[in-house]
Amino acid sequence: MINLLLAIVFSSLLYIIFKLYSKYEVNTFQAIVFNYIFAFLVGISVSDENLEIQDLPNKPWLIGSIILGALFILVFNILGKTSQENGVSVASVSSKMSMIIPILFGIFFFKETITFEKITGIIIALIAVYFTSKKETGKIEVKNFIFPILLFFGAGIVDTSMNYLQHTYLKDSEIALFSATTFLAAFIFGILIFIIKFIKGNFKLNIKSIVGGLFLGIPNYYSMYFLIKALQSKNLESAAVFTLINIGIILLSTFFGILLFKEKLLKQNYFGIALAIIAVILVTL
C-alpha cells in the first residue's frame, strides 16, 4: 500500500510543477524532454544493477522500454494538441478516462478476479473522473474529434504496456534500470524532435526549461517507479491499482490546487469528489 500512496504523491507533484511552468514562463515541451534525462540519471543512481551498455540487448524488456519511451513523447504531443483544439478540460477527462483500458486488460488478459463491488467501484470511479476533472466548458469540435480519441487510447496504451512489461519481464531488482532506460529512450526521441524543429527554423532553446526539467524529472521518475512497484503488489490487482491511483491523483491534485493556487471548484467537482471517495471504498472491499 505504501508504494501505491507514494505513486499518488509523486504523480500529483507533477501537476503542481506543470502549474508553476506557466507562472515562470517555462516552455513545457522543452522541459518535458529535459526531464527525461534527469529522470534517467536518478534511475541510474538508485539502481541496484550497474548500467552496462553491452548487457542491455540481452534484457527481454529492452524493446518494450524503447517503445514506451517513444509513446511518452507521442502521447504528450497529443495531450498538447487536444488541450489547444478542445480545451484543457477535455484533455484532462480523455487522459484520465483512459484508465479503463489497463483495467480491462488486467481483467481479461491476466484473468484478474473481479467482484460486483469492484465493478461498481470502477464504474463510479469513471463517472467521478469526469465530474472532478471538468472545470471548464470544453466542446469537442467534430473536425477535431480525433485528438481526444487518440489521447484516450494513447494514454491507455502507455499504462497497459507498463503493466504488461512489469508483469511479464521485469524482476524486482530491474525496476530502477527499466525506468531509467525508458526515460533515456524518451529523451532521445525528444532530442530528435528538437533537431527537426531546429532544421525547420522554429526552435529556440529556453534555458528555464532545463531547470524546469530538473524539478520535473525527479518526481516523474519516482511516480513511474512506485507505480510499477504497486503493480507488483500481491495484495492488489492491477484493476484496483489503476483505479485507486487515478482517483488518488485527482483528489490530491485537487487539494493542492485549492491550497496552493486558490482554485475554485464547481458543484460538479464536489459531486465528483464524493463519488471518488465511494469508488475507493468499493474497490478496496
Overview of the structural elements:
The protein has eleven helices and no strands. It has helices at residues 2-23, 28-46, 62-86, 88-97, 100-109, 116-133, 146-168, 175-200, 207-231, 238-261, 267-283. The longest helix has 26 residues, at 175-200. The radius of gyration is 19 Å and the shape is globular.
Coarse morphology: globular
Note the beta-strand portion.
Answer: under 5%
String of helices and strands: HHHHHHHHHHH
Q: Main β-sheet: number of strands, strand sense, barrel status? A: none
Mean pLDDT: 88
Stretches where pLDDT falls below 50 for ≥5 residues?
none
Share of helical residues: over 70%
Number of helices, counting only DSSP H or I runs of 4 residues or more: 11
- Number-wise, the strands total 0
Rg value: 19 Å
Alpha-carbon distance between the termini?
Answer: 14 Å
Specify the structural class.
Answer: mainly alpha
Could you write a compact summary of the structure shown?
The protein has 285 residues and is an all-alpha fold. The chain has helices spanning 2-23, 28-46, 62-86, 88-97, 100-109, 116-133, 146-168, 175-200, 207-231, 238-261, 267-283. It contains eleven helices and no strands.
SSE topology sketch:
Elements: H1 2-23, H2 28-46, H3 62-86, H4 88-97, H5 100-109, H6 116-133, H7 146-168, H8 175-200, H9 207-231, H10 238-261, H11 267-283
Helix pairs in contact: 1-9, 1-10, 2-8, 2-9, 3-4, 3-7, 3-8, 4-6, 4-7, 5-7, 5-10, 6-10, 6-11, 8-9, 10-11
